[in-house]
Amino acid sequence: MERFWKRHKDRLIGSIAGFDRLLFRGTLRSISYVEGLNYFMGNQRVPFKGFKAFVEKFSAGVRARAQQIAERKKRPFLYVAASRTDKEKLVREVMKRDGIAKGLICVLSCVEPCLSFSVHPNRQKRELELVARDRKCLHIYFYFVDPDFGLMHIRLQTWLPLTIQVCINGREWLAKQMQRAGIAYEQKDNCFTWIADPARAQALMDRLVDFRWAKWLNRWAQAVNPWLGPQARPRLRGYYWTVRQGEYATDLMFRSPEALAEVYPALCRHAVEEFSSPHVLRFLARRTNTRFNGELCTRMERRREGVCVKHYLEENSLKMYDKQGSVLRVETTLNNPGRFKVYRRVTRKGRKVKGWYPLRKGIVDLRRRVELSRAANARYLEALAVVGEERPSHHILDPVSRPLRTPRPYRALRPISPEDSGYFAVFLRGEFRLQGVRNRDLRQALSAEVDSDPARRHQFAARITRILQLLRAHGLICRVGRTYYYRFTQKGDQVMSTALKFRHTDVALLAA
Fold first, then answer.
1. Which of 139, 236, 314, 499 is 20 to 30 A from 40 (CA-CA)?
2. Which pLDDT does position 508 carry in this prediction?
3. Closest to 15 measured CA to CA, from 331, 197, 318, 251
4. Adjacent-strand bridge partners of 358
């Protein structure tokens, strides 16, 4: 990202990175699966024949609490007939009409699909049994203007297992914090086009990572769910909170829409034409190997916010778009964090051990989620930094085309020769950009059949070692400490990319 900033420093006025949309999901784990609900019903001495009446008691309590909240706050309780209705648009109209600046705006109810339970006969066993299935039930939406998060909503399922969702926006939280800190800013929709002090604003935004989410979310859940209070009978255990969807965005604020318009078409073209599958895998910290059999695609589309280039990697995505005309946003969305790893303590065979294990959806791993998303955005912007480079190619290639003596002599590089460009192509392959390249990787990529002959393998390995020393002497690569891996430097990226571009460009275009 630093390279992108230096490249466009005359056009940029600041940047901010942090959560955009955050969707939390609360699950009552003790009754969210068939065996757990079976145990709960047995504890309450409820037979299967009485399941419907038992569940309707919970549903009626939720609806009564929603009605009570609306009446106490003197706000409307509206029924939405179609689940596809834009509820936020409806709420904003109510908010504008009634001049609501804080507190409850309104309560909505709508029948929507959900995962729930029902009792069905098992003809083989000739008995009733509890099954989990997709169905529809009434959902209650509570829309609030929170003093910290601005416009937010809570969605509560009225049928067991009473799943709840809380949706907030990190940019709204930052706006409230900057108001209290006295930092001037300009906000359009959910992004900032200008911030007086971007460094202080970023420090405020980083506080959201350590926010006491569990306490805050539990407070809201107890306010809308009557079966969580100490007086409730039967009383349900508290919610387990996960991040169902987390959008982490890096916004680069340009001086004007014209400044962004000068470069954005070229950025889109480069992202679509040059970013292949290995590149996207590298951006999202995934390796390219035979174990990967998922789906990856890239598409460009025009949205209300602007032109968007989106890369899908299975359930997760990375996208770029111009927002509000003068903001370049790169955003990582992790819908399935299990594709990534986190260093944590686990129990294995009765023993506590530490290691790299799949990232969990729970809020406990939120900090690691931020690290992964921020690094993905930075790698994406770093890869875009080469677009529109205003340097003659000879300024890049001439320094490495001369012999060196440091203190031993090294030959000059021949950047567009078949031999040297072959090494460059291997280094720039997506699967090697993340971890680096070893001597063995170069041997297998350049001549895999050599490894079958021990004598030729030894000779070729020595030759590759000399090539690595040569590239290292010219400053194109560096060695990763305590490993056998080599990574290209910023200078190496420029030299290798320029040389390969020259080698593969149609001569007619060069002569035009």
1. 139
2. 65
3. 251
4. 341
Q: Given a cut of 80, is residue 317 above it in pLDDT?
A: yes
Q: Is 393-511 a CATH 1.10.10 domain?
A: yes
How would residue 342 be classed by pLDDT, with cut points 50, 70 and 90? very high
What would the mean pLDDT of 203-229 be, rounded to a whole number?
93
Beta bridge partners of 166: 24, 154
Backbone angles phi, psi at 32, to 5 degrees: -90, 0
Report the C-alpha gap between 345 and 347 in whole angstroms. Answer: 7
Q: How many CB atoms neighbour CB 499 within 10 A?
A: 23
pLDDT tens per residue, range 360-370: 999 999 999 99
Q: Phi, psi (5° rounding) for residue 480?
A: -80, 125
- Identity of residue 130: L
From start to end of 270-306, where are the E strands?
A: 296-302
Measure the CA–CA gap between 263 and 271, rounded to whole angstroms.
12
DSSP string, 314-360: TTEEEEEEEETTTEEEEEEEES-GGGSEEEEEEEETTEEEEEEEEPP
Q: Do 387 and 266 form a contact (C-beta atoms < 8 A)?
A: yes
Q: Is 211 helix (H, G, I), strand (E, B) or coil?
A: coil
Angstrom distance (rounded) from CA 323 to CA 191: 8
Angle at 162 between CA 214 and CA 44, to 5 degrees: 105
Q: How far apart are CA 3 and CA 13, in angstroms?
A: 15
Sequence length of the chain is: 512
Give the whole-angstrom CA distance, residue 510 versus residue 502.
9
Tokens matching residue 429: 């392959």
Q: Beta partners for 351?
A: 348
Q: Within a 10 A sphere around the Cβ of 476, how many other Cβ atoms?
A: 25
**Which residues does 212 contact at the CB level (< 8 Å), separation at least 6?**
none
Q: What element of type H or E holds 406?
A: none
Angle (CA) 399-400-406 rounded to 5° is: 95
Distance set, CA 114 to CA 26, 88, 164, 234, 314 (Å):
14, 20, 11, 23, 23
Helix (H, G, I), strand (E, B) or coil at 483: coil
| Domain ranges (residues) in the chain | 29-162, 393-511
